[in-house]
Structure formats: C-alpha cells, structure tokens
Amino acid sequence: MSAEDVIDRIFETFQQRGDRLYGERVTQAGHALQTAFAAEQDGASEMLIAAALLHDYGHLIHDLPDAAERDIDALHEEVGAAFLGPLFVAGVTEPARLHVAAKRYLCAVDPAYFHSLSPASVRSLELQGGPFKHAEVKAFEASPYFVDAIRLRQYDEMGKVPGAQTPDLEHYRPCLKAGLKKQQTSPTP
C-alpha cells in the first residue's frame, strides 16, 4: 500500500465515522482537526501535528462508539496505536498512545488541571483509572515521549470548541506523510 493509499484510508474513516459525538459538544473529526490545528498554531513538529490529528483514531475504528456512555473504557488509545503502529513512526504513535496517560499524570501533579476538565473528561478519567499514583507519575516522566504526550494533551483540551474553524483533513496530508514509516516496495520490472 502506498503512502497516499494509507492516508486516503484514514481520511475515508474520518469521513465515514467522524461525525460521531463522544461526550463532548464536537464531533470526532472536529475534535481531531481542532487538536491538530492547536498543535500547528503552537509550532509543533509535523510528527506531533500528525499525532494530534490521530490521537483519538481508536474511537473511530473500535466497535464501541458509545463506550463511555456505557461506562466502558474501550482503551481507544491502545486500539489506535495497534492500528497505526505498523504504519507510522513512534514520534506519531507514542504521543497519541500516551495522551490518556498524560491526562492521568496532569491530574496527579496539577490539581488545577483536574478542575479544568469537561464533565466528559472527568467521567472518562474515572473509567481510565483516575489520577496516577506516585510510582506511575515517576514511570510516566521516564518515557521518551513524556514531553510530547503532555503537549498533545494540552492541544486535546483546546480541541473541544463547538463550531471552531479549522483547516480540513487534506491540509494535514503532508504531516501524515512525513510521519509514515518508509514503505517497502517491490522492485518494478
């Protein structure tokens, strides 16, 4: 599969399932675009912008679109990482995979952060295990993607504004393309 085919497939999933709400007052696609736009506006790398766009991709591809409403942690961050990991470099997939851990971390180290969360984020935090304990904080801080995961989490919180104007998916194609693993191609005759 070519790089363009991979990206087209991802964009098709956003187009087919991105209109889902997930407890916030924005759609999945709107949230992804707002999060990527926040990263772009902050001067983030192409890898982190791609991670911001894809951080909730697991919500789009798992079979439980209403998991939080049913009090289920569908581990969307792990579902997304499992699908995207073979396609994208760790600089894209790891911050996305760790964005839930970053929320748990920030709630543990910054009480003001917890109080800034939306009701949907507070509920999902409960399902995800609550704020980290001391040992979990230290382990998370040791991650090579700790800083990017925290930045992504901050962009995530900015991406929940109903009706916000953002660039479209196609605008982010270069970032996704830059984050793809090099594809093995067969030699042509």
Please explain how this structure is put together.
This protein has helices at 3-17, 28-41, 46-54, 57-61, 76-84, 90-97, 99-109, 111-116, 119-127, 134-141, 146-158, 173-179. Helix 2 (28-41) packs antiparallel against helix 3. The protein has twelve helices and no strands. It has a single domain (3-176), classed as Hypothetical protein af1432 (Orthogonal Bundle), CATH 1.10.3210.10. Helix content is 60%, strand content 0%. The chain is mostly helical. The chain is globular.
What tags apply to this protein structure?
189 residues; mainly alpha; Hypothetical protein af1432; 12 helices; 0% strand; globular; Metal-dependent phosphohydrolase; Phosphonate_degrad-assoc
Give the CATH H-level superfamily: Hypothetical protein af1432
- Fraction in helix: 55-70%
What is the CATH class name?
Answer: Mainly Alpha
Question: In CATH terms, what is the architecture?
Answer: Orthogonal Bundle
Strand content: under 5%
Report how far apart the termini are: 18 Å
The shape is: globular
In total, the number of strands is 0
Provide the CATH topology. Hypothetical protein af1432
Q: What is the succession of H and E elements?
A: HHHHHHHHHHHH
User: What structural category do the secondary elements indicate?
Assistant: mainly alpha
Number of helices: 12
- pLDDT < 50 stretches: 184-189
Indicate the radius of gyration in whole angstroms: 16 Å
Domains, number: 1
Q: What profile does the largest beta sheet have?
A: none
Average pLDDT score: 90
